[in-house]
Design a protein that fits this description.
The protein is an alpha+beta fold and 143 residues long. It contains three helices and six strands, in the order ββββααββα.
């Protein structure tokens, strides 16, 4: 995780947070990229002592938070051109999940920040050996 010390603010425009609230950030982390590094996921961790999801709501679709985040990322030397909220189900109680595009990933790598290895899409099927008939003596066959 890359430590980020900034305070953003929701503006109340989100679907689940309807008021302006300060959101102190703790850090950011790229948790996934595809093999070609064209898209991925960025998690933005916030201080839950200051921003409580149960009280204030999940930070999702709030334009004020997103605008502040993009400016913070730009100030850090990262390309925030293709940074947008991930779907609602990806959001957490301690982080905001965002989809990121190739320009962001390229700038992240150029800064020397770590990215995870892409997950393999290859499925390996290894069938189990069949049990010995003697081991199946617990089965009773009805005629």
């Amino acid at each position: 995780m890359v430590e980020v010390k900034a305070v953003l603010r929701t503006d109340g425009s989100g679907l689940y947070c309807s008021r302006s609230v300060a959101v102190p950030l703790l850090g950011i982390e790229v948790t996934y990229t595809d093999d070609e590094k064209r898209y991925g996921e960025l998690l933005v961790y916030f201080d839950t002592l200051w921003y409580d999801v149960d009280t204030n709501g999940i930070i999702y679709t709030d334009q004020g938070f997103l605008d502040g985040l993009k400016q913070t990322l730009t100030d850090l030397g990262l390309n925030a051109e293709f940074v947008y909220y991930s779907e609602w189900g990806m959001q957490g109680n301690t982080f905001v999940s965002l989809d990121i595009g190739e320009p962001f990933i390229t700038s992240w790598i150029a800064k020397g920040y770590a990215i995870p290895e892409a997950l393999s899409t290859e499925v390996v099927f290894k069938p189990s050996p069949l049990p010995d008939v003697a081991e199946m003596s617990f089965l009773k066959w009805d005629s």
